[in-house]
């Protein structure tokens, strides 16, 4: 089969080489063998091949994090050959094995391409807004980097929950994408006065919930409402901030972390609750996975990763394996 195999830490995506004669992996007990149909591309895929990600697999390894596909072989009763699934696994290959606990059946009304980017991105946004921030209908929800993978999911989920959504992004094109997927207002966070624009939109109230995958927490404390909740989702800017804690006290606000990957270890009982909420939204059509306009292939995954790293993409960048897919 074809697969990318990493034998040493790489400088970046351009060092990835697609190999043609990699043996198909066989499933161990508790695992599935899956024919990959589509792959969700992530910023952390690059960190992983560089040895800069928290997960450092032993060499040699196949990189990748998210996928959708069809079960070829199953060692567990809940899945059988032919089942359509999506999940988490080392996915840059035509055939992979992964633990059955890391996959789910695909929602009925979405394609392999749409499903490939669901497993990490969407529950992060849902758990952040629902479990951690307890976003309520009628509140103002500000989403930073709203055209990105987790951001565009957060925009749709917040809107479905009845919030008034303010999107930020770094370009007019990305702000239009955020509005297309449901944002009520759009602000360029490169504007020096973006916090004042938030206050103006909210009539001085500020944003009740701020969703931040970028690293704009310090500035966001100026735009948050009394009793507001600021969600620390990630650090796409590349730096960890130091916060003036007096603002947290004076505005009676909470700064709250979300680490979805750690729920398996620390709070596993919450995972089915999150997926039930998400499946309800997806199957009712109230939210829909948003894809970047260019669909990559297994062969040009390095190009897709470079586009993500250069901030050229919006929504979710996907690579198909074996051509474009449909819902059948």
Automatic annotation (TrEMBL):
SUPFAM superfamilies: GroES-like, NAD(P)-binding Rossmann-fold domains. Gene3D superfamilies: Medium-chain alcohol dehydrogenases, catalytic domain (3.90.180.10), NAD(P)-binding Rossmann-like Domain (3.40.50.720). Signal peptide: none annotated. Pfam families: ADH_N, ADH_zinc_N. Residues 12-319 form the Enoyl reductase (ER) domain. One of its GO terms (cellular component) is mitochondrion. This is Enoyl reductase (ER) domain-containing protein.
